[in-house]
Write a structure and sequence with these properties.
This protein is of the alpha+beta class and about 200 residues long. The chain has a domain of about 100 residues: Chloramphenicol acetyltransferase-like domain (Chloramphenicol Acetyltransferase, 2-Layer Sandwich). Helices cover about 30% and strands about 30% of the residues. It contains four helices and ten strands. The strands form three sheets. The protein has a six-stranded mixed β-sheet with strand order 1-10-9-8-4-7. A two-stranded antiparallel sheet has the order 2-3. Strand 2 and strand 3 form a beta hairpin. Helix 2 crosses helix 4. The radius of gyration is 16 Å and the shape is globular. The two termini are about 25 Å apart.
Length: about 200
């Protein structure tokens, strides 16, 4: 399932957050905003926030969001716990620390445990769209492409907008296509009106 997102308001919000940074604070990225928005959507759509435990499906009331990181020894997925309860700045700080330690080979086992959902963002490599492989035992993963300026039609007029592609991969043993589509629609709505997720 794939959608295109108008990132205009999310990019404006990110600029405002960066402008308000205090000395020493981590600069928020689009990935940080996406983590916050996805976490909010996971709480609203618990069918997507699921794991397999043997032959049972376990759904979670909290969002522990894994972020796929290319480390020297391969892909790792450190977890930002309770991302639904964190501010974007808190997520940025946690993400920066986890990515640094992943690249330095200093992650601990607990840094990689208990994720309920994963985001894989290849936008920084110029990838427009891709399908991410599930991170077992999780039942869903979100693949995020690059934000690119593209022409769109609004009110009969052509405008250039920053568009980003997102694709969700769902394990259909746990998540129906309609549930995945509803989740993806919520993520798109929150990115297009990010104040609704804060």
């Amino acid at each position: 399932l794939t959608v295109s997102v108008d990132m205009t308001r999310s990019l404006e919000l990110r600029e405002r957050l960066v402008a308000r940074l205090r000395d020493g604070e981590t600069k928020p990225t689009v990935s940080d905003l996406l983590t916050k928005v996805a976490a909010a959507a996971l709480v609203r759509h618990p069918a997507v926030n699921a794991h397999f435990a043997g032959d049972k499906i376990v759904r979670f009331p909290y969002a522990h969001v894994g972020i796929a990181v290319a480390a020297p020894n391969g892909l790792v997925v450190p977890v930002i716990r309770d991302a639904d309860r964190k501010t974007i700045q808190q997520i940025a700080t946690a993400r920066s620390d986890l990515v640094r330690r992943a690249r330095d080979g200093k992650l601990q086992r607990e840094d990689l445990a208990e994720g309920t959902f994963t985001i894989s963002n290849l936008g920084m490599f110029g990838i427009e769209q891709f399908v991410a492989v599930l991170n077992p035992p999780q039942a869903a993963i979100l693949a995020v492409g690059a934000t690119e300026e593209k022409p769109v039609v609004r009110g009969g007029a052509v405008e250039v907008r920053p568009l980003m592609s997102m694709t969700i991969t769902c394990d259909h043993r746990a998540i129906d296509g309609a549930d995945g589509a509803e989740f993806l629609r919520t993520v798109r709505e929150l990115l297009e009106e990010p104040a609704l997720a804060l």
